[in-house]
Design brief:
167 residues, 5 strands, globular
Length: 167
């Protein structure tokens, strides 16, 4: 098991880097374990392509010194908050047992950012319910319930008043 102290979860490759990359780098420099889970490959993006974005994500993971970088492969633009999607994300949260999750903004111009934030927030809560059964993606073993201590949302596009700033 790889326990992650600070886990960013975002809809597209590059969202976490742009929204909280400095926070991830700072905490890594302080000796914390860090990681990013991308929900999609960003295949609908108008800048670049999914293969390019995935290569860039891997390079960013190396630069940031991430412990893990994973892509859940949900469909860009069309992922939904349904049971199957939630269970995959809950399993990932339980697999890495993050203390803190950094998620995309709850309100944003890009619909994937806002609906991704709601999905992440819901999955973090549900991951703590013992009656929801998930299996570890690699071992197939039942996973214990796990809820992050905190979920914080990082700003994307809209100018929002932050309630927490990391220097």
């Amino acid at each position: 098991m790889t326990k992650i102290d600070l886990l960013a979860i975002a809809p597209h490759p590059d969202d976490a880097e742009l929204g909280c990359g400095g926070t991830l780098a700072k905490h890594r420099a302080l000796g914390k374990t860090t990681g990013i889970i991308d929900l999609t490959a960003g295949e609908l993006g108008t800048r670049g392509s999914a293969p390019i974005r995935l290569r860039e994500a891997q390079t960013a993971a190396e630069i940031l010194g991430l412990t893990i970088r994973e892509n859940l492969g949900f469909e860009d633009g069309f992922f939904t908050q349904d049971k199957a999607t939630l269970l995959r994300l809950i399993a990932a949260i339980r697999q890495y047992q993050p203390e803190v999750v950094l998620a995309s903004a709850l309100r944003d111009r890009h619909t994937d950012h806002a609906k991704g934030a709601e999905l992440i927030k819901t999955a973090c809560f549900l991951a703590g319910l013992a009656r929801i059964e998930t299996l570890h993606p690699q071992t197939g073993q039942p996973q214990p319930a796990w809820r992050p201590r905190a979920v914080y949302h990082f700003i994307h596009d809209y100018l929002l008043l932050p309630t927490l700033v990391v220097d």
